[in-house]
Amino acid sequence: MNQEKLLLIPGPTPVHPRIVNALSQPTISHVSPIHVAELKEALANLKNIVFCQKGEPFIVAGAGTLAMEMALLNTVTKGERVLVLSQGFFGQRMEKIAQSFGLGCDLIQSEERKAVEPEVLRDRISQKNYTAVVATHVDTATGICAPVHEYASIINEFGPFFIVDGVCATGGIEERMDDWGVDVIITAAQKCFGVPPGLAVLVVSERVMKKRESMETIPAYYADLLNWLPVMKDPSKYFSTPCVNEVRAFNEGTKIMLEEGIENRFVRHIRIAQIIREKLLDLGFSFIPEDRYLADTLSVVRYPEGLEDEIFRKTFAENGVIVAGGLGHLAGKVFRMGHMGNLTSSQAYFALEALEKTLASIGYSGKLNPNAQ
Ligand code: PMP
Questions:
Q1: 3-state SS of the chain?
Q2: Which atom of ligand 1 is nearest to the CA of 63?
Q3: Percent of the chain having pLDDT more than 70?
Q4: Which ligand 1 atom is nearest residue 188's CA?
Q5: What would the pLDDT profile of 145-171 be if each residue is shown by its tens digit?
Q6: Mean pLDDT over all residues of the chain?
Q7: What is the pTM of this model?
């Protein structure tokens, strides 16, 4: 049997025993009163997690990419344009989705180590008409956290819908849908919710639901919010078989979040991120984002010269901790360490001890590069 390792990749994240237990219960009918009650509770909890009172929540078998597709196809129609603010990698995915469906799309790529500056957004939307603006809150490839609250207030001055890709942020970093004027939050089960992968999760404003109703047909069937809406209102209705075990696990995940207190959860993410970053800096590592853009959900950590990616991650895993390699042009140059979901500070300290052990066993000790930037 494999010895269990601490999974600190940027999702899936470690799964709390209460969630594992929920997931392992016998499968029940998808129209049984128990499933109906569990999905209803999960939907209500989800709205509380994103501070939304009036919007419509959706929990559907799939993953974050399906949620991205659902958000776009139900908001923007042929002949309209969407603006994507990319802080690294996942904005490009949104652009590809728009292109796949023949939707007009412009992308603003942030400068290296930064998020897209709010003034760049203001300039653009004051000059060109967009139906929607999409921003990645935390880009999982770069570890850059975008100022989505500031984006929201600019976008609201001009009127487009604001879609936030919160896959690597929702439930770990503050997102206030109603107060900030966010129209869609896209997320997934496997990151800050701490639930195994398998769900596309969205919360959609009344404004977007009205837009969808006005569009008549859209190039989607499974991804059409109007096919799911009756099920979300009354989960005893059938559209496509829901993953009952995963919904139960997700519901348990949302209960854990609300028991902790969503604001306490944000504070815990900030605290654990600080502990991890301080240690990494102390050891001479550096981060991809500039300080003001550092995400509290994951760290994208640059290797000092001489530290080899594969050997480092393999040895770290032997010492009990799994971290991820870099994505795209950062492959081989960084490792990515998730610190989101239900991670405790003792798990974080365990990981940092394992990190020191790893460095010692591959021949590094003390400061790796005291001048690292
Ligand atoms: N957006 C962001 C910011 C992500 O980090 C990810 C997944 N890493 C996705 C979208 C896509 O989610 P999924 O892999 O669940 O399809």
A1: CCCCCEECCCCCCCCCHHHHHHHCCCCCCCCCHHHHHHHHHHHHHHHHHCCCCCCEEEEEECCHHHHHHHHHHCCCCCCCEEEEEECCCHHHHHHHHHHHCCCEEEEEECCCCCCCCHHHHHHHHHHCCCCEEEEECEECCCCEECCHHHHHHHHHHHCCEEEEECCCCECCECCCHHHHCCCEEEEECCCCCCCCCCEEEEEECHHHHHHHHHCCCCCCCCCCHHHHHHHHHCCCCCCCCCCHHHHHHHHHHHHHHHHHCHHHHHHHHHHHHHHHHHHHHHCCCEECCCHHHECCCEEEEECCCCCCHHHHHHHHHHCCEECEECCHHHCCCEEEEECCCCCCHHHHHHHHHHHHHHHHHCCCCCCCCCCCC
A2: 15
A3: 97
A4: 15
A5: 999 999 999 999 999 999 999 999 999
A6: 96
A7: 0.96
